[in-house]
Specification:
Blueprint (H helix, E strand, L loop, with lengths): L11 H19 L1 H14 L3 H13 L7 H13 L3 H13 L7 H13 L3 H13 L7 H13 L3 H13 L7 H13 L3 H13 L7 H13 L3 H13 L7 H14 L3 H13 L7 H13 L14
Helix pairs in contact: 2-3, 3-4, 4-5, 5-6, 5-7, 6-7, 7-8, 7-9, 8-9, 9-10, 10-11, 11-12, 12-13, 13-14, 13-15, 14-15, 15-16
């Protein structure tokens, strides 16, 4: 009787894995996205600067190409020098965030101006953010409002989200919460953190949209994950008081910690300090709380800079 082998012969399993990997790489190479990337590279090398910009975007995202911030920066620079406004805008963001290049806010500002005048809506929107906060430029709310309006009309969701904020606050544009809600929704759907935060706050207040703390908490989560520090604060507060989520001080602390340590958000540090001082959700430590308040002050949270009055 012929014996039945229940285990593969030596080496057969490895050979099969190798075949599967080869097939996977072959399929990846044939994928339309991979072919498109190859076409973009060929066009870029032939002098088509728009193709250089499109290729840089793929490389930056690691889309069918190995992610490489430095190569993306080099390509954005080539596109920018060739007159592609979007390339200048993307290069500015790289300088702002230190991705693939050393941080340089002065260089970033110059590139945002060049991108905005070169027809890049995102460049105008980011320039508006700087003028609204006075970061590296004179504080100019009117200029910011103009840039947000212009960029939103041209399709920048970042510009639309910030324009929505102005409509809620009634600053230099007509107060219009309904319009703001629409702008927040559209921008949040495109993963713009400021839009998610704004929409969450409207749901929490029941302004124009239905009051719903659970929806608000989820929107705050998306805002925090997207890099909006105030989103982390709002999400943390929701966990502290149990608004739309089960009360959990440890979860509140986790959100504050992200805002404080990863996003350099002052109020997040201040709120984490309060929990640490009480030992709510984290180990109690007055020394750590004092250090966090100091961090909060350095990161722009003015109330944390006030020294406690001496006992009398």
């Amino acid at each position: 009787m012929t014996a039945i082998h229940t285990n593969p012969q030596p080496g057969r399993g490895s050979f099969r894995i190798a075949l599967l990997l080869t097939a996977a790489f072959t399929l990846a190479a044939c994928h339309p996205g991979n072919q498109k990337a190859k076409q973009l590279r060929a066009s870029c090398e032939s002098g088509d600067v728009k193709s250089c910009n499109a290729l840089a975007e793929k490389i930056q995202k690691g889309e069918y190409i190995l992610q490489d911030d430095e190569e993306a920066v080099a390509l954005f620079d080539k596109a920018c020098q060739g007159g592609v406004g979007e390339g200048c805008s993307s290069l500015a963001v790289a300088y702002q965030q230190g991705e693939g290049v050393k941080r340089d806010s002065v260089r970033a500002l110059s590139l945002l101006n060049k991108g905005c005048t070169g027809g890049a809506p995102e460049g105008c929107a980011r320039l508006g953010v700087l003028y609204r906060s006075g970061s590296g430029v004179p504080l100019d709310q009117r200029r910011a409002a103009s840039l947000f309006t212009k960029s939103c009309e041209q399709g920048s969701m970042l510009g639309c989200a910030n324009l929505g904020v102005l409509h809620v606050e009634g600053e230099l544009v007509a107060p219009d919460t309904t319009r703001a809600a629409d702008l927040f929704k559209k921008s949040c759907d495109k993963d713009i953190a400021v839009g998610c935060l704004g929409l969450g706050e409207l749901h929490a207040a029941g302004a124009v949209v239905a009051k719903n703390d659970s929806i608000a908490a989820e929107l705050y989560k998306k805002a925090c994950s997207g890099g909006e520090g105030m989103g982390c604060v709002r999400r943390g507060v929701a966990f502290e008081v149990g608004a739309g989520v089960d009360q959990a001080f440890w979860a509140a602390a986790t959100n504050y910690e992200r805002g404080c340590e990863e996003l350099n958000h002052g109020e997040s540090c201040a709120r984490l300090a309060m929990l640490t001082e009480r030992g709510a959700g984290v180990d109690r430590s007055e020394k750590k709380a004092a250090s966090l308040r100091n961090d909060a002050c350095k990161k722009g949270h003015a109330p944390s800079c006030t020294k406690p009055k001496a006992a009398t």
